[in-house]
Every structure is written in C-alpha cells, then in structure tokens.
Amino acid sequence: MSVTSSLLSFAAVAALLTIVPGLDTAYVLRTALVSGRRPAFAAALGIGTGSLVWGAAAAVGVSALLTASTVAYTALRVAGAAYLVWLGVQMIRSTLRRRDPDAPGGPGDAVSSRRAWWRGTLTNLLNPKVGAFYLAVIPQFLPEQAPPLLMGVALALVHNAEGMLWFSALILAAHGVRGWLRRPSVHRAIDRVTGTALIGFGLKLAVSPH
User: Choosing a second label site near 61 at 20 to 30 A (CA), which of 27, 34, 144, 174?
Assistant: First the structure.
C-alpha cells in the first residue's frame, strides 16, 4: 500500500466516524451556541489536538499498551468519566445559581477561546474509546516504507481536516440561530441538556467494560 492510497483509504473510514454524532460534536455545538464562533472553532481545534496525540500514540504503540494493560485502560477510563461528569454537573449547577446565564463565573458560562481549546483537548484525550479506535484502525494504514510516527500524524491530520469541515458546517449553522438561542431561558435549557448528556456519557464510560 502506497502512502497516497493509505491516506485516501483512511479518509473514507474517518469520514464515517466524523459524521456520527458523539461527545465531540455535542461539545462543539454547545460551545457555538453559548460562546460564539471563535471559541467553538477553538474547541474543534482542541479536539483535533487530542486526535493528533492519539494518532501519534497509536503509531508508536502507546495505545497498544493501554489495550494490553487493564489497569492503565481502567485508570484512563475512570479519569475521563469523572471529568465528563464533573463538567456536566458544573454546567447544570451554573443554571441553578443564576437566572442570567451570561453572568461570569461558572463552567456553564461563555468561555474564552483558550479555555474552549483546553476543554476540547481534554475531552478527546480522556476518552479511551478514541484511543481504541486509533489503535484498531491506524496500524492497518501504515505502509511499510513510511516512518510510523510521521504516518500516524499524517493520518490523524486527515481525520482533523474532515472534522474541521464538519464542525465548521455545524458552527456556521448554529451561528445563524444563536441570537434566539442566547435568550436566558433557552441558554439555561441548552446547558441543562448538554450537562445531562455529558453526565450520561461519563456514566456510560464509567460502567463500560471496553
């Protein structure tokens, strides 16, 4: 398999994963609705940063260690679940503390681009299922003549490019209705729904054996 055919074949597989609704999509969409386009794009870049790390790790075998070691995988799974539940609870609490969700001070409020990027990165890195996907897929697309680390990063960049196209469409669509969605009552509802979804993702991750 040549490098070009490897990249094209992986792009087809990654495209299917990109458009399936999941935690990354929910986080970017919520950020777009609450904080605006710039933080939402920062959140998408954060998710992409996490994907690059996972891609490099899968290429050099670090993800294989997580799969082989029950303790390491469980530790990452529990940490990721705890982070998601904490983030979800904080979002819901912020809607109960304030009638005006635009008041500063809570994780449910509009966030800066830097904070959105960091949360996006953590959300991706603390999800062992992302690592499991990269472990299962990337080694199949590593040509023998290509350096594994560079090829792993290249494949992750392909996935990132597709993800940014998808996230851009979501962000621009959300921006069109953001004025209505930023009403205090609607804003609270968005944070409560998103917070509940994050808690649900976290609990599912915590009890999932794989």
Answer: 27
Six-digit token string for 66: 């997580």
Handedness of CA 152, 136, 73, 201 (dihedral sign): positive
pLDDT digits (tens, 9 = 90+) for 188-198: 776 777 778 77
Q: Are 126 and 83 in contact (CB under 8 A)?
A: yes
Indicate left, alpha or beta for 113 from its phi (over 0: left) and psi (-120 to 50: alpha): alpha
Domain coordinates in residue numbering, the chain: 3-16+69-207
User: What is the tens place of the pLDDT at every residue in 37-94?
Assistant: 899 999 999 999 998 888 888 777 655 555 556 676 677 667 767 776 877 787 788 7
Other C-beta atoms closer than 10 Å to the C-beta of 114 total 11
From residue 193, alpha-carbon distances to 29, 122, 149, 205 in Å are 12, 20, 39, 18
Supply the pTM of this predicted model: 0.66
180-186 long-range Cβ contacts below 8 angstroms, 24+ apart: 181/33, 182/33, 182/34, 182/102, 184/99, 184/100, 184/101, 184/102
